[in-house]
Design goal:
The chain has 395 residues and is mainly alpha-helical. 79% of the residues lie in helices and 1% in strands.
């Protein structure tokens, strides 16, 4: 379903995409570990630690959005490496920080660098010859490498001293430098397009699509941030048991990333996307409200599997609509913005209205936020049947 001429998804290209997307989104994925480190190092309160975290996450999101248009043009390898250099400097600054002020400044710098990496790497997804396969392989690789970082960063902090985890991340930036040379640079074009009809022009994404994406990840990341707390309070499970359930659900969720493209080919992208969104919308309130450990476990696994399936479908659809990669990078930036806002928003609802209302808000929020994405999947189906002639289908 991807009749396009672009970079073949070789091993080198896959490694480059995984390295770029992993580090670009590394700040958000490893943030719980970072918070533990700098809160302990500088004796920060929960609100102060949250402010430092928000500084980094918001910097990443804003820079990703600002550079989405630039990432649609050739030069992604250079852009990624520039981002890695800035991020590495920021990580080193965070490791050597002597006070909260220098820590905030370092996180601002590294967040900006990660935003450049994230914009370039996600835009490169659209330049492959099979958007579905590239998205699935990249997301699976990112989940695996992130799991290693989540284990490695706290181990470094514990065994080698506080702040060493930031040094490990700086080394990862250095290690990723040569790997990113295989990032696809130019846009993919339909295989049927001739040299005269293959002109590809990026278009500015619709605001409603960006808002929907941001809202979806606000709901998703916010719920994930409180999943452990709610699991312990409602089911009576121990901290280690809940952590094990969430860890297992994250690994099993890789099935969703693999099933997503297959379901899209067999049943159609729109229909399969709607099913995964519905599954996610039903699983989230069950996770929040249930008092049964078995239901909690099943809901966690179903939720994470559907979430990854939705993510893969979203990236693939955006890549098919806009082969320059601007749409993919813009949606990634909007998602990063939602990730930063999510814990604060969900925490406010939980404190102000309770878990019952939160469960309803999560279900409704997921459905409403997904409507623009479902419309985008329709546009992606139309895009696969038409050569690019200088415009992107409206979404």
């Amino acid at each position: 379903m991807n009749a396009r001429s672009g970079s073949a998804l070789t091993f080198g290209v896959a490694v480059a995409l995984i390295a770029g997307v992993t580090l670009g989104n590394g700040g958000a994925n490893v943030m719980p570990v970072f918070v533990d480190d700098f809160a302990s190092r500088f004796a920060l309160s929960d609100s102060a630690a949250g402010l430092v975290a928000a500084t980094q996450l918001m910097a990443t999101a804003i820079v990703t959005l600002l550079l989405a248009k630039r990432a649609a043009r050739p030069g992604r390898v250079l852009m990624t490496r520039f981002g890695l250099a800035v991020s590495g400097a920021g990580f080193l600054g965070a490791a050597a920080a002597t006070g909260p002020v220098t820590l905030v400044m370092a996180n601002l710098v590294l967040g900006a660098g990660l935003g450049a990496v994230y914009a370039a790497a996600t835009a490169a997804l659209a330049a492959t010859d099979d958007a579905d396969k590239a998205s699935a392989v990249t997301i699976c690789g990112v989940v695996g490498v992130t799991a290693l970082l989540i284990m490695g960063v706290p181990a470094a902090n514990h065994d080698l001293g506080e702040g060493t985890g930031f040094l490990l991340m700086a080394l990862c930036c250095l290690f990723a430098w040569p790997l990113t040379r295989r990032l696809p640079d130019g846009p993919a074009v339909p295989a049927s397009a001739t040299a005269s009809t293959a002109e590809t022009v990026s278009a500015k994404p619709a605001v409603v699509l960006l808002v929907g994406t941001g809202l979806l990840w606000t709901v998703t990341q916010g719920a994930w941030s409180y999943a452990s707390v709610l699991g312990r309070q409602h089911t009576g499970m121990s901290h280690s048991a809940v952590s094990a359930v969430l860890a297992i659900s994250s690994v099993v969720a890789l099935v969703g990333a693999a099933v997503g493209p297959t379901a899209a080919r067999r049943f159609g992208r729109m229909r399969s996307m709607a099913v995964f969104v519905t599954g996610q919308a039903l699983a989230m309130p069950v996770l929040v409200l249930t008092h049964d450990p078995v239901f909690f476990t099943v809901a966690a696994v179903l939720w994470q599997a559907c979430q990854l399936a939705v993510l893969v479908q979203m990236l693939a659809a955006a890549a098919l609509i806009d082969p320059t990669g601007r749409l993919v990078a813009s949606l990634s930036g909007a998602g990063a913005l939602g990730t930063g806002i999510g814990p604060l928003a969900v925490g406010a609802v939980l404190d102000g209205a309770g878990a019952d209302v939160l469960g309803l808000v999560l279900a409704i929020g997921t459905c409403v936020a997904s409507l623009p994405l479902l419309r985008m999947t329709v546009a992606s189906g139309e895009a696969t049947n038409e050569p690019r002639r200088g415009r992107v289908p409206a979404v």
